[in-house]
């Protein structure tokens, strides 16, 4: 699937442009929200923090960072077979996800212009960073003879509506998990330069600082709205989104084990490190977090990953849809059951430790 080049007549795409992967629950989505509600948000409770993060975003530390060096100028055909497929898949998923951030932030900036100039400026600075990230990843895909038509994606992919509260929880988490994903790969490759198969990873250190700043901006939005952290609903949604993001991460990382192996990373260990660190970071913004050190936590998540891979295998087994559906049911039940058990594990109250971590 990942190495297929789009047939222009069939898809309306230009030659050499990669057909977008089939949309699944794991594909990064494009979002839209209630722009009016965001324009009216009162941020006065976090004024100093907002000004501090705006100053950081305006400083534009990575203005000259995303410039391809001469290391990219070579043939990459030695990355082949399953590693190549998994690597292109990693690039595509990352590019789509960065671009999804760009579209949402750009639209927020546009819609808030004249109504909430401070937020409009902040979203435009965030969009600037995500455009660089997506563009850099798309150029990396071109090194493998493919690229994404981002204009085509903008017009043709469905947009999912999330209320502002959900946008704040999920974007905060995706920025922070993005930070940990990039920095852990970077640190690993620093310690093991023999696995540095492609120069993209050398850019991750400064790159992840962009994601960290984006996460800090969303932390300001979250903490400025008491209803997002001072009641039972907020605790419910915090743990719900943590679990959703961690389950998605586990499924996608374990499905692409061969890519991580190609750069000397054990996918299970990496998944755990990313999740443990993101959960710990979320303690600074969310009212409640998960206990990722509970002995049942990762075994249950990994059972979901096995069930998800089985579902994918059933989807491609050429049997009639009705039969596939019957084959899938028990595996869907496994995922639902494991997620429910995970959600019901004891949680950690982050508000009680807030004075200590802030
Ligand atoms: Fe990004
Ligand atoms: Fe970001």
TrEMBL record:
Q: Example GO molecular function term?
A: iron ion binding
Please cite one Gene Ontology biological process associated with this protein.
photosynthesis
Catalytic activity, as annotated: Mg-protoporphyrin IX 13-monomethyl ester + 3 NADPH + 3 O2 + 2 H(+) = 3,8-divinyl protochlorophyllide a + 3 NADP(+) + 5 H2O
Q: What superkingdom does the record give?
A: Bacteria
Task: Give a short account of what the protein does.
Answer: Catalyzes the formation of the isocyclic ring in chlorophyll biosynthesis. Mediates the cyclase reaction, which results in the formation of divinylprotochlorophyllide (Pchlide) characteristic of all chlorophylls from magnesium-protoporphyrin IX 13-monomethyl ester (MgPMME).
List, for all copies, the residue spans of the domain called Rubrerythrin diiron-binding: 89-221
Question: Known SUPFAM superfamilies for this protein?
Answer: Ferritin-like
Stated EC number for the protein is 1.14.13.81
| Co-factor requirement | Fe cation
**Designated name of the protein:** Magnesium-protoporphyrin IX monomethyl ester [oxidative] cyclase
Pfam families linked to this entry: Rubrerythrin
UniProt keywords, alphabetically: Chlorophyll biosynthesis, Iron, Metal-binding, NADP, Oxidoreductase, Photosynthesis
The UniProt family comment states:
Belongs to the AcsF family.
Pathway(s) annotated for this protein in UniProt: Porphyrin-containing compound metabolism; chlorophyll biosynthesis (light-independent)
InterPro entries noted in UniProt:
AcsF (IPR008434), Ferritin-like_SF (IPR009078), Rr_diiron-bd_dom (IPR003251)
